Amino acid sequence: MRGIDFNIVTLVFYIPYILFEIPANMIISRIKPRYWIAGLTFGLGLTVTLAGLCKNFGGFLTARLFIGVFEAGVFPGFLLLIGSWYTRRQVGARLTWFLVANDIAGSISGLLGAGIGSLDGANGYSGWSWIFFIEGTMTCLAAILAFLFILPFPKESTFLKPEEKEYLLRKLAIENAHNEEDKMHLKSMYLAVCTSAYSVTVFQPSILTTFGWSSMKSNLLTSPVRIASGIVSVSVATLSNHLNRRGIFVAIGFLVSIFGLFFTMLSHDYRLRYMDLCFAALGIYIAQPLVIAWGVAQVGGEPKEEHSLPARLLWAKLGASFLP
Does the structure show a pLDDT above 90 at 140? Predict the structure, then answer.
């Protein structure tokens, strides 16, 4: 790819994602989550695997479009499912663990990308093709495991005793009855935090290559950032849950990210710029899970609210779509 081709390929992912996010999440209340989420994940993995066979720019565009379609229902579907099992106070730490798992996957992906790239030329395929083949196949295997282990919504659960289900549903109903109106303009917060998040996560390897480092080294150096951010994110979310306060920690995360990005622009030494970029990512990963948990808590995890949560997340994707 040349010129702005990478930016275009990045952008086209968000078009079907934005269009299908709300319809996809409305289906999850009508189809068992294990079938819907596992099916979408398998389709995603298969598309990624086949993307390794692409020979031209048009092929990549098509693959990215289908990836956007399949991925549109996975993330908001998981959020709705997790939110349905926990109270407003409990959901923050649980969602943070879910998002940190995504960061860990990103760290592993960076390490795998650096290692798999050495297969360049094996069996006539480029190194990037092998990255798609292997990581796409792993996603398909993960989809099979997801089908086996994903739980239904609480009302449809069969592994709970009748008295346990009744207690859980009553507890959730009491907790969710006190949800307040959206006075914090969460859509704007989603837009702000996720625009920053995608600017760092999507373009971090490209940013690091501008420091004069090779693609392999840049991929490797994305892993420490994600691991450190994950540890801090879980710690802050646990403290936030304990104190039952989110706003102050979201504000701290924003400030850390702002200072990190600001000093990244001012620093001339590449090692200092890398450290500043780490702080920028750290602040983003402090704020992002808490903001998302805030929205899930207000929705209450009710399947009948399946359109409300992706509608909020839609603003995040709109912000991300402007980045390329």
Answer: yes
